[in-house]
Structures are given as structure tokens and as C-alpha cells.
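YM 10:42: Cellulose biosynthesis protein sequence, as discussed on the call
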Amino acid sequence: MRIDIIDTHQELLDIRENWEAVYASDPEAQFFLSWTWISRWLDGDRSQWFVLAAAPDSCSDYVAFFPLRLRTRMRKQGGGFYNEITLAGRGLSDYSGLITRPECEGQTVSAFSRYLRRANWAALTLEFFRSSPNRLERLLRSLPAKDFRRIEIPAVNKRDNVNNLVCPYISLPDSWDAYLAGLGSNTRQKMRRFLRKVDEGQEYRITVANADTIDRDLDILMNFWATKWAQRKGDRLRGLVRVNRSMFRDCFEGGALFLPVVWQGDRPLGALATLVDHQKKAFLFFLAGRDETVRTPVPSGVALHAYSLRHAIENGITTYDFLRGNEEYKYMFGVEEVLLHNLVITAPGNRNLGGKLDPRCVSRVLQKAMQLHKANKLADAERGYRQVLDVTPRSPAALYGCGQLLMRKKDYQGARQMFRKLISIKPDADNVWLRLGLTFEAQSRFADAAKTYRRFLQRKPSNAAAYSRLAQVLLALGKTGEADSAFQAASTLQQETSALVH
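YM 10:58: structure's back
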């Protein structure tokens, strides 16, 4: 099984039909792995995303996809940088996983497992991973517990005692009456009573967002939601409102949002946003908001769920997913449960597999090392430069930065190694020649310093700084005549440069 890496938006667009075909074939596939969702939200991931794509050979279509993201972190207390692989799209996705053609699952998931075993990472985080136990076991087969530490992370909200590893859902029957027959009598009566009032349309009514009302209805939803959660969400509230509103708007444009609003006369009482997976015939309840200052015969949340459930059944939807969280109210609707996996797997010694950084993060680590260097955090900066050089040993910026730090540590031999290698890559780098000469001067190896400056001047005979340094070391060697000539050359070049400037 061949594994390719897809990590650009254009490459992703090119496999749309292939992705949709695999998604349609996989009985475990769910909305947060659908093309509708993935195509919109992978690029919104601030970290570096990539998709593992499995194919039987170079001539065949892909038969499985595994969207991931690469994070680069820095350890505390001088541990250097390391990589973490997590599930892509987790910012807004309630859960995630992988998709595969079922007839190929044994081969594809095993191939993904082998890829992970070869990749450079110190932590693999499968947060809210949704899959069958067999699929997860295959994925972890190349990462045995005897070598890799596995940590099960609980996801219980202590404030509300809600377990976010539990996803309640309803397998919907063919008719509304059949669904109601499976509920408790109290819930059944509430639903029938309120829907009767809505159908009569005298005091209460429900509208569904369309192209003319979507912005108004999203404002109603998000304003109610923000009012309820303002204190608890604090400074994050504005960003959460903005991101969720944008996501709902995108889903609406893609035909994947069902947004009913319940009204009493002209006053909105509540709204409910549900994501729609047409391919898998699923409704996924995502977010609700209501006016908590108003009391009605049936709570607006119950009324909106009842309306949505009836609409779903009438339109051939087979699953009503309440997403993460075992809040008590969900169980009045006759739900079943599916459990998510929340795993962190750490590599031996908590170090990147292979002892090196993932090549895709090198530019970020180099940038961070340069920032640390500028901030005078020299040990961390040097560690970053060396980690970059482990992956890209011909990186000019890392060689130069590391050489500078080694000079400050008075490791002149180490600095010379860096500067010599850099000169072999960039022979016209003026500053590097000068710094190479300074490493000899620092150890009073004036003859070697003079030789270095002369070699440089053969390449750049108009460099005044090199003549000036050469003059200094010639004086130290007692060669006053040659030193005077070098000083004169430096002075002449400086005057010429000054005249050109003026």
C-alpha cells in the first residue's frame, strides 16, 4: 500500500471526487470527515495540516484518507523542540478519525500505522477519535504499549459533570409516530402539544433559515448563545461567536445547515443550529440559544428538537447526533451512546522518533531559534539551531547563528567548523570570512587569521574591513611593513566608499 502526503489546498481540491467516493463507501465515516467539512476547515487550521492518502499502487485511486496536523512545541527547562501529530480540524470538529473503503481497511489502516511508526514525532494525540475498536487497534499496531506510553485522557467537565467522551445519538425510524412510540409518555405529550401549537400557527410559529433570513437568524442564535455563556467563556467569547458564525454561514452556503427559529408572535424565543450530512443521512445538533427570560408551556429547546426530529424523519434522515456530552436533557429523546477515544501516545524517552525534527517544521524552528538568539536565550537558541542542522545540515542561517553562539561560548573550534561549512556553501559571504578569521584571532593564531583574510581578499579585493583585520594580525606578527600596506589599502577603500556615498 502506497502512502502519499497531501498538504496543499490545490492537491486537496484535485482529489475531491476520490474523497467523496471513499467517504460514501465507509460505514464509519461521519460529517467531520466529509468533503463539505474538510474542504472548508483544513485551511482554517493555524498549524500545519497534511492528509495521509493510501493507494494500492501508483496507478490506482486512493482508498483511504487520514487528515492530520503537525505541531511544533518547545520543551521547558532546555529540552529543545519536538513534534506532536494530532487530528486535523479539531478546532471546530466535535470529533474526527479516518476514512477508508471497508474492503481495504486491513491494509490501509495498517499502512497508516506503519507510516506513524516511521514519522518524526514525540507525541501522537488522538483527541476525540471516533472509530470502532478494531480500527483503532489496527492503527496502533505498530506502536506497541511495551515501547510507547499510552495515556487515556478523561474528558469530564467537572463543573457540570458532563462526560465529553460520550456521544448520545438516535437511530431514527421511518415514521414520526414510530419514533414517538419509543419515548416516555411525558416527553411524547410535550412534543405533540407544542408541535400542535406550532402547526396551528396562532401564538407560536417556527421558521427555517433561508437565503433571505440567514443573517438575521444567525444573529438571533449567536446573541442568545453569547448571553448565556458570556460569563463562563470570558475573553474567548467574541472569538467563539465570530468563528462559529462564520462556520454556520459556510455550512449554509454548502447546503449543510438546518436552522429553525421559534417565535412567539414577532419575538424570537430560541434557535437551533444543526449540521446536515446528506450523504450519510444524518443531523448533527451543534449549538442552540434561547431567551431565558421567557417561560413557555414547552421549553424552546425541547420544541426545536421536536421540530427538527420530525423534519429529519420526514426527509429520510436516519441518525440524529447530539454530538459530545452526556447532558441529562439529551436522554429524554430516547438516545443510544457511542464512546470516543481520547489518547495521547508518547515515543520512547519523550523524544522525536528517529532523533530528528519533522522536516516540515524546520523553517518554524529556525525562526524561533533566531528569536531566542535575539532575546539572549542562547542555550535554547543553540539547541534549536542544532536541531535544524540535524535535518538540513546545509542551512546557511542555522550555520551562521550557531557559529555566532559558539564564538560567544569561546568554542572557537566549533565556530570554525560552522563558518567553514557555510563558506563552502556561500563562498561570497563577507561576514562569514571575517568571523572565521576572528576565531583564529581569539586564540592568538595570527598566522592562520592572516591566511584567512588573504584568501578572502583574493575573492573580494575591495573589502576594507578585511584589509583592516589583516593589518591588525600582521602587526601582531611583527610584520609592520605589510601591516602598513594593509592599513593604507583599508584607508583608501574607506575613502573611496565615502566619496561614492557623498
